[in-house]
Amino acid sequence: MIDTSRFPATNAIGDFIRATLPGPAAELTNIVLAVLAILTVVGLTPVALIWMERKVAAHFQARLGPMRVGYHGLLQPLADGIKLIFKEVMKPEGADTFVFFLAPILSATASFMVLTVIPFDHHLQVTDLAGGVLYVIAVAGLGIMGVLLAGWSSNNKYSLLGAMRSGAQMISYEISLALLMLLIVLLSGTASLREIVFSQAGTVLDWWIFKFPLFGLVAFVLFLISSTAELNRAPFDMAEAESELTGGFTTEYSGISFAMFFLAEFVNMFMAASLTTTFFLGGFLAPQFGLAPLDRVLDAIPGFLWFFLKSYSVIFIYMWFRWTFPRPRVDQLMNLEWKVLVPANFFLLLVAGLFVAMGLV
Amino acid sequence: MENTIFYWLAGALILMSLLTVSVQNLLHAAISLIGSFFATAALYLLLQMEFVALAQIMIYIGGIVVFMVITILLTAQLGAKNLFPKTWPQRLWGGSVCLSLLAVMWLTLQSNDLPPATPIAPTAEPASLTAVGFRLLSADGTGFLVPFEIISLLLLTALIGAVVVARRDPKPAAAGVPPVPADQVSGKESS
User: Fold this and answer.
1) Largest Cα–Cα distance in chain A?
2) Tens digits of per-residue pLDDT, A238-273?
3) Pick from A74, A102, B114, B172: CA 20 to 30 A from residue B96's CA?
4) Using an 8 Å Cβ cutoff, are B73 and A160 in contact?
């Protein structure tokens, strides 16, 4: 079992503030700082991901991608952002004004809220809820609301169709995501994300992807597939299939409202990748191979760097998916979920129950 | 401090609930319902019931309201044409039901045979998930194992029922229904 004293839950900045300010003021300052930190992550993640998406897409198609704005196009996201913000915000005639502007805010809020329980490092987590997994599932529902409301309030057939597809898809795949999270909860015996990470301490073979022999790998692949669908990303992007629905539920959005959806999408992708990291890849724990000298070097690297490295590798897999697989039809997507993924997840749960009951993991 | 937060939350809850029943646009009503569910969840959090609060958000907002919104979206011609009809008899009935409920609650609260409310220590530890699980499923007579199993059976029945209702059977003869003779089928089609 892991020695948790090596991983204190408080960090130096928080300790310093608690030591210098009186009780309630210190708590308040720490909360404000935590929110600011989350906002920084929210602000910087899309910047990194836009650049990465453009570059990955380009190299998959034997192009160079953005090269002119900054070194190898590093400032391209800035240019994109400025362009989006300065565009005019337009509202279609007959749209429901209140809902039309509420929807992008709901979407963005939902993706920010999940980040508060993600353990970026042992001392970098806003709050460690005992029911962290429940919280993640609960907040994801809000994102669906944003999509549905956006589609309806736009007063546009393409938007409504896109929203219905998207909503149906997200609700369906949320089931298999929840079942997979339940699988990890069952295996690790806790629903707190921090404890789930600690349950994977040890060597690389103790990560849930390998610790639950073979089935862990299957669960990992299923989690990747379901979260790609939950994110409405290609190849499961029927909701905004350009060739059929112009732009799906975002058809009528422009300027900063569209930027909100865009932001939410990229933050969601990061969130899904960090959940994958937390559940299957040992979270912020450094990979250990059982070779003492190598392990000491790897362990010296701070946990949040490992966390971001693992998360961005998962994000790369999502981008890889996008340029590799063709888009299935809507009915094929639903068949995949209800006739393949859900039964497979129930089977995995059954096997995991057996393993836990027999003390094999 | 706790009292101030409680009154703010209760005020928000009352406002959202009133909006839910008084707004004429169904979709706006659903949105204010989300607000009222959030306020309720926050009240649970104030009572240190983390699990109940999360379950509230997950089931009511993530499940039920999303379901309601999808139903509303599938409804054609929502908007100015299809508003809730409001007539005076309806208002009278609704108002009298509300008033009688309020009166019953008031009378109950006024009668002194209720046990005095024990204040919950604000520093009480939130009930852990493990505790909730054991309380729910313990078989030693204190748990709720039998209701839990009956509810799962009920849900299973509902699921199978939904599948049966939604299924379009290409061959009705295969589903245990006595086969319809071919001449009768063709006769129906021609008539």
Assistant:
1) 67
2) 766 666 666 677 777 877 888 888 888 888 899 999
3) B114
4) yes
pTM of the model: 0.83
Structure tokens at A103: 């929807």
DSSP for B65-80, please give it: IHHHHHHHHHSTT-SS
Q: Which residues of chain A have pLDDT under 70?
A: 1-5, 239-247
* Positive or negative: CA dihedral A279, A280, A281, A287: positive
Is the Cβ of B18 closer than 8 Å to some Cβ of chain A? no
Tokens coding B169: 């059977």
- Residues linked to residue A121 through DSSP beta bridges, in sequence order: A124
For A191-211, b/e burial (b = at least 16 CB within 10 A) is bbbbbbbbbbbebbebbbbbb
* Chain A interface with B: residues with Cβ < 8 Å: 96, 98-99, 102, 129-131, 134-135, 137-142, 144-145, 148-149, 151-153, 160, 163-164, 167-168, 171, 174, 190-191
ipTM > 0.90, yes or no: no
Amino acid letter, A128 = D
3-state helix, strand, coil split of chain B in percent (to 5) is 70, 0, 30
DSSP track, B114-149: SPPPPPPPTTPPPPPHHHHHHHHH-SSSSS-HHHHH
Residues 6+ apart with CB under 8 A from B25: A96, B78, B79, B83
Closest CA to A159 of A235, A240, A89: A240
Q: How far apart are CA A45 and CA A144, in angstroms?
A: 21
